[in-house]
Design brief:
The chain has eleven helices and 13 strands. The protein is of the alpha/beta class. The chain has a single domain, classed as Spore Coat Polysaccharide Biosynthesis Protein SpsA, Chain A (Alpha-Beta Complex). The strands form three sheets. The chain has a nine-stranded mixed β-sheet. A two-stranded antiparallel sheet has the order 2-3. A hairpin with a 2-residue loop joins strand 9 and strand 10. The longest helix is centred in the C-terminal third of the chain and has 13 residues. The chain is globular and about 60 Å long. It starts with 5 loop residues before the first strand and ends with a helix.
């Protein structure tokens, strides 16, 4: 199996949880400290060796393209001012990867969004990174997933243990044989009840998929919410490995930052800001004093 070099990042969501901020600004462009959330995701892909990136976008997402494109007037202004630091920050976003864009059109779910990547992917395996999940920068999760997929010609999903009461928020796997943090996935259920969940192992927003997934997506019927769920396609593949290869789970033990709702988003900013070399000490000191007044 050839080396995997392509990443797909679905970014067509409306971000209704963050209205009115997302009325004109894509939720993926909301800043986490001083960098938009989507840039963290692209950096993760690039650091894992994925040099070709496709973003699945929708209407009013032009800011995504602008962010990763040249900003000549801004660059010239910073150059004239001799502000090499900020010029470097701007250039960093521009030169991250070979980035392409395609629109999803109708918002019919994650499975539908992924199906729009078929022309870009062709006959290659590829990674999928969801923008709501940020993985700590030091993590080798995605690299390990790519290695597993290449070695076993398999589909690999990232898993995390979640509290039992939270299984209703995730796709949950029924685990088979397990060796260390790697396990066979025999079934996936989208947002099961606490009573019917086969485990507390939740699928988080990182996948490595074989190209056979597109044939499965074409025959998929609408699932939860009337949408075409990627979880349902993976469930078909887990039960019928001959369709597109087996489904393997890699249990992630590390830090995952959820930017999908307001409270989790604020927690993410506080945690990451506290660890910054340029901000952490002053911010943490202020935060401690502020907390004492509550």
């Amino acid at each position: 199996m050839s080396k995997i070099t392509k990443a797909v990042i679905p970014a067509a969501g409306l971000g209704t949880r963050f209205l009115p901020a997302t009325k004109a600004l894509p939720k993926e462009m909301l800043p986490v400290v001083d960098k938009p959330a989507i840039q963290y995701v692209v950096e993760e892909a690039v650091n894992a060796g994925l040099s070709h990136v496709l973003m699945i976008t929708g209407r009013n997402k032009n800011a995504l393209e602008n962010h990763f494109d040249r900003a000549v007037e801004l660059e010239n202004l910073l150059h004239e001012k001799g502000d090499k630091h900020r010029l470097g920050v701007v250039d960093e976003a521009t030169g991250l990867a070979d980035i392409h864009y395609v629109r999803q059109g109708d918002p019919l779910g994650l499975g539908h969004a992924i199906s729009k990547a078929e022309t870009f992917v062709g006959d290659d395996a590829f990674a999928v990174l969801l923008g709501d999940d940020l993985i700590e920068a030091e993590s080798k999760l995605l690299s390990e997933m790519l290695q597993l997929a290449e070695a076993k010609s398999a589909n690999v999903v990232a898993l995390m243990e979640v509290p039992e009461e939270d299984v209703v928020k995730y796709g949950i796997v029924n685990p088979g044989n397990r060796v260390g943090n790697v396990l066979e996935v025999t079934e996936l259920i989208e947002k099961p009840s606490v009573e019917t969940a086969p485990s507390n192992l939740a699928v988080i927003g990182r996948y490595v998929l074989q190209p056979g997934v597109f044939e499965v997506l074409r025959s998929l019927k609408p699932g939860v919410g009337g949408e075409f769920q990627l979880t349902d396609a993976l469930n078909e593949m887990a039960k019928n490995p001959e369709l597109a290869g087996p489904v393997i789970g890699l249990v992630f033990i590390g830090r995952r930052f959820d930017t999908g709702d307001r409270l989790s988003y604020l927690k993410t900013i506080v945690e990451l800001a506290s660890e910054r070399e340029d901000l952490g000490q002053d911010f943490s000191s202020w935060l401690k004093d502020f907390s004492a007044k509550l």
